[in-house]
Design goal:
Layout: H1 3-11, H2 25-32, H3 42-50, H4 56-70, E1 72-74, H5 75-84, H6 101-104, E2 106-107, H7 109-122, E3 127-134, E4 147-155, E5 158-162, E6 168-169, E7 173-174, H8 181-192, H9 200-203, E8 206-207, E9 212-214, H10 216-219, E10 223-225, H11 239-246
Parallel strand pairs: 1-2, 1-7
Antiparallel strand pairs: 3-4, 3-10, 4-5, 5-9, 6-8
Helix pairs in contact: 2-4, 4-7
Length: about 250
């Protein structure tokens, strides 16, 4: 069960970064260094980030970059969700809250996807959250352990795939040393009170280009949406075929 902490990190390094990836250096740098006065509300932040950006692609990118450099992954809640797949008594932990992810700067995949969708909408971009399964070595017996959420976003009239969690390279986990639900809630309250200073591990993060505007045929190797339309393939594959690829 220890794999819940490192599962995301181990998955995102499975292949090399595409050589054709666009250089987003200046955009990413702006997302890394937002003055605090522009982070008081989410609309204010989105306005600052997208000011002077004219293309859908650049707007979608800078929103992703801000999330990567400013939000942590809630390892404790992730563990609770995975345990629930095997232990019904752990269901109570699914009620654990991470608060508003924009305020607390921590969440699980569903929180990340919803935050990205909210920011995209504020930037005038069409987007949706997608739920499904993600990983490798998945079978019909362990599927629920690999529940995941990501996004589709319309860029220049075309739907594109983005996974805000898998796009994070570096030390993304927080609260993995928390020992109880009560302690978890105390830590969340601290974050809500403003204890969310940038850490060294956040500054050392980078973005894995494979999970921004991913090629659908590559993306489906590791991600299977509940709604097959979100595969963005001309001919969607079945869940049975996808699971066979995993074995």
């Amino acid at each position: 069960m220890k794999k819940y902490i490192l599962v995301l990190l181990s998955l995102i390094f499975l292949s090399s970064i595409p050589a054709y990836a666009k250089n987003y250096r200046n955009i990413d740098r702006k997302a890394q260094s937002v003055p605090s006065q522009y982070e008081k509300t989410l609309p204010q932040l989105v306005s600052y980030l997208t000011k002077d950006l004219t293309s859908d692609e650049d707007k979608a990118r800078i929103l992703l970059a801000w999330i990567v450099y400013n939000v942590d992954y809630d390892a404790y809640k992730s563990k609770a969700i995975i345990e629930h797949a095997y232990t019904p008594r752990a269901a109570r932990k699914l009620n654990l809250t991470t608060g508003d992810i924009f305020v607390t700067r921590i969440g699980v995949a569903k929180d990340f996807a919803e935050l990205y969708q909210r920011m995209a909408s504020m930037a005038g971009l069409d987007s949706m959250t997608v739920s499904g399964y993600a990983g490798r070595g998945i079978s019909s017996r362990n599927m629920e352990e690999y529940r995941h959420d990501w996004n589709v976003i319309k860029i220049n009239g075309k739907w594109e795939l983005v996974d805000p969690v898998w796009a994070m390279r570096g030390d993304i986990n927080a609260l993995q040393d928390v020992g109880s639900d009560r302690q978890h809630q105390r830590e969340i309250k601290k974050r809500e009170a403003g204890s969310r200073e940038a850490t060294r591990k956040r500054r050392n993060r980078s973005i894995d280009e494979r999970w921004f505007m991913s090629e659908p045929r590559d993306f489906v190797e590791t991600h299977y949406p509940d709604d097959s339309r979100f595969q963005l393939l001309p001919t969607p594959i079945t869940i049975g075929s996808w699971l066979n690829r995993q074995s």
